[in-house]
Amino acid sequence: xxxxxxxxxxSNQRVTIKLHGGEVITGVAEVCNDHERAKVRTSExxxxxxxxxxxxxSRLINMINY
Length: 66
What we know:
Layout: H1 2-10, E1 14-19, E2 24-30, E3 37-42, E4 45-50, E5 54-60
Antiparallel strand pairs: 1-2, 1-5, 2-3, 3-4
């Protein structure tokens, strides 16, 4: 999950993160130098999510048609 969040952050992708407690966080992953948590820019503001609490990560990949 840490790898998926890093890929999403470097690609400026939207993510949906499901936590072990059942909470769902949706936003744009951002690069964060903290090795214990991820940063997600949500509509309410930035949220730092501890990796230990992450159950599942989904990434939204934008496709460009040529």
